[in-house]
Amino acid sequence: MLRGPRRSHEVALSDCAAVGKVSRRHSTELERIWLVHLSLPPSDSLGSAMIVAEPVSLHPGEVSLPDSPPTSYHEKDMEKDVLAREESASEDEAVYIVDPEAERKLIRRLDIRIIPASMFIYVLCFLDRSNVGNAKILNADTGDSLAQSLHISNNQYNTALMVFFIAYAIFQVPSNYMLKKLYPSRWMAFLMMGWGGTTMILAAVKDLPSLTGVRFLLGAFEAGLFAGIVYFLTFWYKPRERSLRIALISACATLGGGFGGSIAFGVGRLNQAMGLEGWRWLVLIEGAPTCASAVLVYLFFPDYPETVSWLSPAERELAINRIKGVASLGHSRISWEQTQATLRDWRLWLHYLIFVAVSVPFSSISLFAPTIVAGLGFEGLDAQLFTVPPYGIGFVVTVVVAWICDRYEKWSWGAVVSFLIASVSFFIQGAIAATAFKTRYGMLCIGSSFSYASIPPLLTWLTANLRSTSAITLAVALNVTLGTIGQIIGVYIYKGDEAPGYPTGHYTNAGALLVCTAVTLLLKVVYTRRNRHLTAGERPWRT
């Protein structure tokens, strides 16, 4: 609500029905009546009015009239009660009726300010995370790849990859808490400077221990970014608005992979320039822009609707009030009681199980795409270049699937269809002859694309079924944290001695996606049954 002078009018419950759906709670001790506040924005506003219906409790027998003070419920007490309720209003305690066109204009402004910046940050994150896959085989034909320079075996290389995910799991939840504590812009800038600098330090490693240590640091800094961005979006967007936006950001993993292959193709020509192998130039060139961008994020990245200066008072009012009850509030406190309830909520563990399983193909393809492509008959720098099409197709598929899911609010079905298509493609890759290069390459494009496409609907479905700031803060971070179990599994499934067919890797990915399908369908049944037992005024679960 706009702060400042306003008028309050008491109306009957029947009158409230004329301005929107109003829920009513019953109590044996208190009798509820409804005050309707009509807030008229100033002349420079969006041209919309918000009508807010809020409950005020009176003891039985007490009556309040507009022009006469109540007998025992003082006007000052009433004002305190109303203001207190405004601070903690939930969806069934406040109804905001806004001009749809005004809301569309606001969302467009938010999209321009928030989404491109978030996409760019995640491109840098994934570029710096996955470049080790490009570095492993870059200039292998001249004996100058990362694996050859450091004299490490496939198993040792996998160990260096695995410690990244250990750090990722350890620092995920604390990082999400720090984002809330220190403001998104400050914390994200700190993380970016940390992982950008760590990526550049990778150019100085000489052996397996130093490589492992640097990868652990990289995991610690990158741990909070993706879960933090998903959590950050809940400050600004309703559930039905998130899937496409999460998809645009998540799909930047595919852009990061595509750019990584393209950059590696070019940087490979710098091999032995100034005495440095091509992979060392690669990590230097890819880490530097992240450090520079961290300064811009610190200065310009938005935090909460309540704090940004580029919204007008009326726009800020609308941005805050439209998400009350359906999204996380930026300044809401994290409650220990709600945290405990979130940890004990068993249906959330089904969400986590799905994310563990889908993280297996996500991780394995991200880290081993150049290796898999090299097994399809592409050699040298061509192996880097031919990793680009799977990522490019993946970006398009991810965005299209998310748009359809948001359009019809069918996030679970979007995930299920993506799981099934990707699973079939991985089964085909494992079953056909290792020399069927064209078919295997086509199936790789399909499998990787739909594996990536399933993730944004899953995250949107999870956040849409969370009902407190504490739940969102913890559940999103815990979801991504537990997903590292699947990512660690993904590190080990593409075995070097199974080249070029890699049947174990492909069959494992297919099986993991079938597990995702089964658990998602089970969770849909759980939510459907819960909806059958809702009482009047309760918010339905998203199935």
TrEMBL record:
Protein's UniProt name: Major facilitator superfamily (MFS) profile domain-containing protein
Subcellular localization, as worded in the UniProt entry: Membrane
GO cellular-component term (any): membrane
One protein family per Pfam: MFS_1
Residue ranges annotated for the Major facilitator superfamily (MFS) profile domain, each copy included: 114-532
Signal sequence interval, chain numbering: none
Record-linked Gene3D superfamilies: MFS general substrate transporter like domains (1.20.1250.20)
TM segment ranges: 157-175, 187-205, 217-237, 244-267, 279-301, 352-376, 388-405, 412-435, 441-464, 471-494, 506-527
Recorded topology in the membrane: Multi-pass membrane protein
Source species taxonomy: Eukaryota, Fungi, Dikarya, Basidiomycota, Agaricomycotina
Molecular functions (GO terms): transmembrane transporter activity
Key words of the record: Membrane, Transmembrane, Transmembrane helix, Transport
